[in-house]
Amino acid sequence: MSQILCSPAPLTTKEAIHELLADKGGAEYYKQMRQLKVNQDALAYDLQSTCKSRTRTWLNICAHCGMCADSCFFYKTNNNDPKQIPSYKIQSTLGELLRRNGRVDAEFMMHCMDVAWGQCTCCNRCGMYCPHGIDTGVMFSYLRGILFKQGFTPWEMKIGSGMHRVYGAQMDVTEEDWVDTCEWMCDENSEEWPGLEIPVEKVGADVMYICNAREPKHYPEDLAQAAILFHVTGTNWTVPRVGWENTSLTMFAGDFEGCAMNLKRIYDAVERLKPKVVVGTECGHAHRATVVEGPYWAGRESGDPPVPFMHYVEWVAHVLRTGKLKINPEKKLKMPCTLQDACNYVRNDGLGRYTREIMSYIAEDFREMDPHNEHNFCCGGGGGMNGIGRYRKERNVGLKNKLDQIRATGAEMVVTPCHNCWDAIRDMMEVYDEHNIKWSFLKPLLINMMEIPPNIEHVES
Amino acid sequence: MLQTLSGPCFVASLLIFFVGLLGRAVWYVRGLDWRLERVAYGYHKDRSIPGAINSIAKWLLPGGTAGWRAQPVAMLAFFLLHFGAVLIPLFLLGHTVLLEQTTGICLPSLPPNVADILCIASLSGIALLVLRRLFSPTLRQLNTWKDWFVLLLTFLPFFTGLMAKFDVNAYDTWILLHVITGELFLVLAPFTKLAHIVLFFMSRAQLGMDYAIKRGGRARGGSFPW
Ligand code: SF4
Ligand code: SF4
Ligand code: SF4
What we know:
The complex is a heterodimer. Chain A is of the alpha/beta class. Chain A has helices at about 15-20, 25-35, 40-50, 55-60, 75, 85-100, 105-120, 125-130, 135-150, 155-165, 175-190, 215-220, 220-230, 250-255, 255-275, 285-290, 295, 310-320, 350-360, 390-410, 420-430, 440-450, and strands spanning about 205-210, 235-240, 275-280, 310, 325, 335-340, 365, 415, 440, 450. The N and C termini of chain A lie far apart (about 55 Å). The model of chain A has no long low-confidence stretch (mean pLDDT about 95). Chain B has a single domain (about 1-25, about 65-210), classed as Transmembrane di-heme cytochromes, Chain C (Fumarate Reductase Cytochrome B subunit). Chains A and B meet through α4, α6 and α8 of A and α1, α2, α4, α8 and α11 of B. The structure holds iron/sulfur cluster (3 copies). One iron/sulfur cluster binds next to α6, α8 and α9 of chain A.
């Protein structure tokens, strides 16, 4: 292969994506990365203009007290390896970069990459345990942005960012594919659910639903389940034709320009369709990217999205609370259950109260993990880590922490309303040969246990 | 010599200390950028102010946060050191007298035996920190000569002050050393990690606001459960 695969420029064409995809595992890509020239002047300029008092103060006043060490699951699962202390990880990368004011080589940048993506999921837990309030996860996310601009991004993340830029989705799902999938899922299920609809681009609906491209691409039944739940609860809803995807591999990649493009597509859809609220699927980072960080990328000074956005758990809690969705008590989960708190909307958006509210409706024997809610540990696969082959070994080591937490509850079912966590939990069960614990999104559980109101026609299949 | 040191030099070091720290605080606030940090500092004051206060207050309370509770030894060391480190410089009788003589500012003073106890507590806090640093592999990895230097800078004024009180025969020497090391501390504070004297409050307030404004303040209602 002689073409240039690794460069600071983002991927902006289908061809470029396919070329990079053809380089299996990024073997050639990483080889080229080693030869990449660091643009030291641009790097120094970037650091000067974007690394301001907050971050510099964090790095300067860190007391090296080590209180953050135990808070990081990588430190714990790597036998308390001092190299995994959050403070050490950030000081030896971003800290060093600042000390040298960008006078670094490709080898150092690759080291930064390996730490920023391979030793941190940006779960932000360590920031809660630092007396000075030093949020290392935030700094790693910032560092990813610096690295992306110079071309030091893991292969899968580079592709992911390109997908968003080219397809407006994290996978190659075109507008046509999307609309077809909506129709297909509607047809598939309308025999069982007469009158089922997936209204595309309906103006003035109460709810605009947005989801994760994996759903139309790999699990279209998830979309059907969403439709059934909207149908059963009598929700006036729609999906946009463009701007239906709320995940953001761009955020994981550090491609913040790409993040802003994603936001624009979604907020434009809001503008076109004028929904009262936007409901996003069971995905943690998608919510973070669209609702928590997103408004800022879209330049909204108040930090609020243009209309209220709800994570799926917020919506489910709402329909359960208001009685629009009723649970058949006979069908509640009987086995011991636990709940995975996704950092991206629990620690970082305070939605833990809603997931707990939901558990009170659906589970008879709910057991909290220890620690839980805001203090939860990352599943082990966040921040893009699940998807990066280069760090597979590191990830698998980290997964053990969550598995131990789950096992300690004695639960046989982990309710997991987050795609990333769901993947991580699936993988940990396989990696550590655990076959007695199941995991699930909310939608299939709810469909199995809901009561169908008399006005809704249902034909048993 | 003692007179110069405890006269004009003292005033000068106080000035450097206060102006320097104030400068760092101002630089901190001016460097905040709502776009870069993605925190709408100017909005949602109803959540952000309580969020900031809470983020500071809980960490000032022994056992006030999960972080403190998870690390009782570290907590003990920090609080032992910091009670004295905050109260003694401000309210020790000798200090208040000196302050009044040189600047005219009058502060209430601590009963001498309370001050002694606080001083000894601080020194034990420092001793604990030293032990922690020596015996924990985690901390050995993190600490550099700078960290040791800052600890030494903190230790010396306490130690010399206490010696001046108890080693009466060598009072003159100790008090001279005490004044020198005390002023060294004041002068260097704004330029070392000791600047956390103010930046701790800045940084904690910022993170508290971040969580209150952006990361869940809306849904969480109450304050962040530190
Ligand atoms: S807890 Fe905070 S101050 Fe202590 S080492 Fe970690 S980041 Fe630094
Ligand atoms: S953000 Fe999470 S993964 Fe990253 S260093 Fe902190 S605790 Fe570890
Ligand atoms: S995958 Fe889930 S638990 Fe892991 S970082 Fe993302 S939201 Fe957090």
